[in-house]
Every structure is written in C-alpha cells, then in structure tokens.
Amino acid sequence: MAKLLEAHLTVPEAAYVAGVTERAVNHEIDARILRARGRKDRRAIGGADLVYLGAVRDIRHQMAPALRRRMRAAIASAVAHSRPVARVAALEVKISPLQQTARKNLAVLERARRYMIESRPGVLAGEPVLKGTRIPARLIADLVRQGVSRGTIHREYDLRHEQIAAAVLFDRVTPRRGRPPVRRLHVKKHVPADR
User: Which of 46, 54, 60, 57 is nearest to 99 (CA)?
Assistant: First the structure.
C-alpha cells in the first residue's frame, strides 16, 4: 500500500492506473477536485487520487462538483488512515477493491517501464526500444493501432505477447517528443496564388 500512496504519476499514467480517460483526469484537476502538483504540462497525480478516480469512474458525470470534492476528501482520509470504507453522508465506498485494482495496474505499468522498455544512447539514438532488441516500442504500438494482429507481430518480429502489450502501454502513457505532425487537407486541385 505504501507504494500506491507514494505514487506521483503523470496524467496519462494516472488515467491508465485508474481506468479512466486522460480527459477525465484533466477535468477533475481543472475543476479543483484533484490537487495535482507541478505545471499544467507536467501534472503529478498522487495515490489517494488514483483510488478516488477509480471510485467515481462510472458516476462522475452524474455527481455535482461539491459532492465529488467531498468524496475525494473522504477517500483520501480513508486511504491515509487505512480505513476500509469512506463515507460521505449516506454513501459508502469500499476502499480495498479500488486499491487492489490501482495496485495491479500500477504494477503492470512499473513492470513495463522497468523490465520491458529501455532507452540507450547507442541504440537508435536513444529512442525507447523493447529491452534486448533494437525494435522501437512506438513502431510496435503503431502497428497495433493500424490494425495489425498481435499474432502477426509476434511471428514477424519474434516478440512475446507481453512485449507487445508493454509497447502499447508505453505508447499510451508516454507522450511523443517533438512537434506534433501537421494535418494536411486533402486538396485535389491547387489554385495559383496570383488569382
């Protein structure tokens, strides 16, 4: 439990661990329900907030901000004092299943980071690759996103299924570096500038 309480995750990482979208995490921060540390582009989410996000995952839209604030405070207090239930008026939230889910997802994230993905200056100019290979993690994630089956990737690149899953997870929680690509309109006919 101490590891979960000590967690300081980015918004994409917190979204994965809590099982919500990045938009939901940012919305809770902007509504001042979660207290994220750091600049807007580097927000850090703590462990008790992960439990809160998991608790309100399916009902957040039906709850008023004042009730969500009270719910977050009650959950944070219950987590900090190791109480099994957080209470807000007549509502009760069981903490243990939420913590177990968050811990499990946090362990998957840590395993992918620590044991599956590496970045070395001498390999592909430091681009993150699957550990023990020269295969970029983002390449595998892009193939999965394009609809290539995991079985095909497994056969073609000789990767284990957990390596493929780690590449997809890495791509999900780690923003791409550099400028975003420019979207080009599909123009069929160009008009000269002198008209």
Answer: 54
The CATH code of domain 119-173 reads 1.10.10.10
Instruction: Write the single-letter amino acid at 142.
Output: D
Distance (Å, whole) CA 33 – CA 69 = 5
CA atoms within 13 A on the CB side of 185: 4
- Cβ-contact 24, 49 below 8 angstroms: no
Separation of alpha carbons 71 and 65, rounded Å: 10
Share of the chain above pLDDT 70, in %: 88
Its pTM surpasses 0.85: no
Burial of 72 (0-12, 13-18, 19+ CB in 10 A): buried
| The listed CATH number (1.10.287, 1.10.490, 1.20.1070, 1.10.1660) that belongs to domain 2-105 | 1.10.1660
